[in-house]
Task: structure prediction
Amino acid sequence: MIFKPEICAIPDKRMTPFINADEIWSHLCNTVRPETLLIRDIIAKSLAKERLTLKETAALINADTPELIAEIKQGARDLKRRVYGNRIVLFAPLYIGNECTNNCQYCGFRVSNKTAVRKTLSDDEIVNEIEALEDNGQKRLILVYGEHPKYGPEYIAHTVKIAYGVKKGNGEIRRVNINAAPLDIEGFRVVKDAKIGTYQVFQETYHPEAYNWYHLGGKKRNYDWRLTALDRAQEAGIDDVGIGALFGLYDWRFEVMGMVRHANHLEACYHVGPHTISFPRIQAAVMENIGTQYIVTDDDFARLIAILRLAVPYTGLILTARENPALRREVMEYGVSQIDGGTKLELGSYSQSLNEEQDLNREQFKINDSRSLNEIVDELVADHYLPSFCTACYRKGRTGEHFMEFSVPGFIKRFCTPNAILTFAEYLKDYAPEHTRQAGWENIEQNIKDMDNPTFVAELRNRIKRIHDGERDLYF
Ligand code: SAM
Ligand code: SF4
Result:
């Protein structure tokens, strides 16, 4: 039996807070020890491409026997393979400035951290960083900022325009996403006009009391302003938004439910769910002041990713270099669609090497995967994933592409796989060392063999030849 969609305690209204902690806890408390058949039905519903209700998500969270956990993980694996195929999209974060007026207890940039060297990259430094990123083969960036009057919407838009303008050799940045403080509607309009991709704001914790405890000062203290940030983005016409929770601040079960509730809210009010979901786990940071009570183990982390994959099947899942290479490799199969590669968080460190002390004082937290982009590409290819730098949908005006991938029959075959191949071919020609090229071209051939439309394969081969002959930026 499949649950009927629940009636939420708080009806969804635009720009109105939608989290009710009691409602979330009551779903979690009312679904303990779920029957095996119920869990199988819920997994089947997700594989039939239906989003899950809060109650169904709670049942998956409560399915904690080894057998049921294995079934949930297998369901997530199947969903990823069947629906999304083997592409993994690659990007890099670029920290623009670490000035911050907030006092988040978990973050190295918090205003009370007097040892942090505060820095905002100059325009020239931004150009240097982007040239270095382009030299590695990056095409997609996320720009990251502290919350400070210096980083208003005009400044963010200015830095986005710089990023799009830097062209070195065959290098260019084709999609600039943003992770910055919440703006008002007018501010979101300004950054939209700079042609940003996704605007990401993480709620950190969806639990209002826990939120108050961690956020001691500055604008970020206002839970509701942050919760409704992406509503304002939607009102301003940004329909490509990313949500997230910082795992380790409160019970992971509650945070998963909070994110599913957030996705439901955006769907109910704007008819479009989040473009991406992020699930960063807390990492060591200078002056960080959090306990260990809610630290998420590796096993629970793998589980929560599989549950999110099933609960919101149409949304991209982002896994970052906060996690170590072995764990990233394992959890990727549960439905991750985007990862960062060659990540450096210290301000200015893509273009210059910093010593250890400079590193420590300019970074927000420690990452656990410091491999180069090419090392990550090598591993993806060895594991039969198809690395992708594709930015086609966004540039063709096909926003909501995850939803199309998911719901339009043949969309992945017609657009996503060929575009992944074309962007990977560019990478192999322009940036890859010999050993990566060999394995990479074999990977491309294998992916072409799996295509069934001869006319389309001929057109794809024609474009690959044009890339060999020197053309760039070809896409469907
Ligand atoms: N300042 C903006 C804000 O807070 O929304 C945006 C940038 S903040 C640098 C990006 C994200 O980093 C935060 O939303 C938080 O989830 C994450 N973060 C902060 N401290 C962290 C830590 N110690 N470990 C892992 N992630 C952390
Ligand atoms: Fe500032 Fe963001 Fe760090 Fe909080 S998480 S201290 S807002 S940079």
Remarks:
- The pocket of iron/sulfur cluster (ligand 2) is lined by residues 100, 102, 104, 107, 109-110, 146-147, 220 (CB under 6 Å).
- The mean pLDDT is 94.
